[in-house]
Write a structure and sequence with these properties.
Blueprint: E1 10-21, E2 24-35, E3 39-43, H1 50-57, E4 65-70, E5 73-75, H2 79-83, E6 86-89, H3 101-110, H4 120-126, H5 142-154, E7 160-164, H6 172-187, E8 191-196, H7 199-205, E9 208-213, E10 216-222, H8 223-228, E11 232-238, H9 241-249, E12 254-260, E13 263-268, H10 273-289, E14 294-298, H11 304-320
Parallel strand pairs: 3-8, 3-9, 6-7, 7-8
Antiparallel strand pairs: 1-2, 1-4, 4-5, 9-10, 11-13, 11-14, 12-13
Helix pairs in contact: 4-5
């Protein structure tokens, strides 16, 4: 695990991490490295094993095989030392409904070092709950409970935050605030590991990500590179879509093409942005030379969603085979 150690070290490391429940493998040979001081997205559909991985990292369930480290400490061997500077929210956060938000945080702070009590008001302010902290949690919405869960994580003054689906229940304004909060935490030198099925949030918040499906990591790297590696699409409106389909399908950069009325949808192979522009220009030129009018050509924007659908679709095909 020490090879290629970045200057700040690894906040999270796993090697061959596996968890089986009887005949079902929830986490399958996961090799993961999260660089300290970054936001990392662990992205996958519901049931992909994201929560199980987090529970293993926190020592809440034992792995079947493999090893892991948090902030350089092996888990579960040095779990207590590792968790001293870790704030975590696994699954839905639970609270005492008859107590207020502030009182719940005081209960949690009492179990930590004395300085934790002094962080309560700042944590409430940071998650946007200070004005509602005097209300009983039983009256809180799902989004407010999520915010309170993050506030509880901040009581540890954490070097590493591990958050499981933290945007659940948040309205659009709350999601925007959440993004700003995550980036501010990273700017302070903290590490955030974010488990989510929301591709848009991972793409906008995280520096690097891993895409997981059926417990296996199927793609991993900087978010920009993952997005750029996905399938790319051109949308064209032409005068003769049937003949255009034949012309376009022969282009070497085209993986597939379909037509619907006067609209063509052209799928390109995994190419860089510059190559997409060159392919689009070349396709447009071929169509014009063939006597086909091109009324509109929309260049694609690389998205993490395209890459996600590409790699998870491949896994579905492999399982079906």
């Amino acid at each position: 695990m020490e090879a290629d150690m970045p200057p700040g070290g690894w906040a999270v490391e796993t090697s061959g991490l596996t968890k089986r429940f009887g005949d079902r493998t929830a986490v399958d040979q996961v090799d993961l490295r999260v660089r300290a001081g970054t936001a990392f997205g662990y992205l996958g559909p519901n049931g992909a094993g994201k929560t199980t991985l987090i529970r293993m990292l926190l020592g809440l369930t034992s792995p079947t095989a493999g090893s892991m480290r948090l902030l350089g400490h092996p888990v579960p061997g040095q779990r207590s030392a590792a968790l001293q500077r870790v704030g975590a929210m696994a699954e839905k956060p639970r609270f005492l409904d008859h107590l207020t938000g502030r009182e719940n945080l005081r209960v949690n702070a009492a179990a930590r070092e004395p300085a934790a009590v002094g962080r309560i008001e700042a944590a409430l302010e940071r998650v946007g709950l200070r004005e509602r902290a005097g209300e009983r949690v039983g009256r809180y919405s799902t989004g407010m409970r999520q915010r309170l869960g993050v506030a509880r994580c901040l009581l540890a003054d954490p070097e590493l935050l591990i958050l499981d689906e933290p945007a659940n229940g948040l309205d659009p304004a709350g999601i925007a605030e959440f993004r700003q909060m995550i980036r501010a935490l990273v700017a302070e030198g903290r590490t955030v590991m974010l488990s989510s099925h929301l591709l848009d949030e991972v793409e906008k918040v995280c520096d690097t990500a891993a895409i997981v499906d059926r417990g296996r990591i199927v793609a991993q790297g900087p978010v920009a590179e993952l997005s750029a590696a996905g399938a790319r699409f051109l949308a064209l409106q032409v005068s003769d879509p049937v003949r255009a389909l034949i012309v376009v399908a022969a282009h070497p950069a085209v993986r597939s093409a379909t037509e619907d009325g006067q609209q063509l949808r052209v799928s390109l192979g995994p190419v860089a942005d510059a190559d997409v522009r060159a392919a689009a220009a070349s396709i447009n030129r071929l169509l014009v030379e063939a006597g086909i009018d091109v009324w509109r050509l929309d260049l694609p924007v690389a998205t993490l969603e395209e890459r996600f659908l590409q790699v998870t679709h491949k896994m579905q095909e492999e399982v079906a085979a």
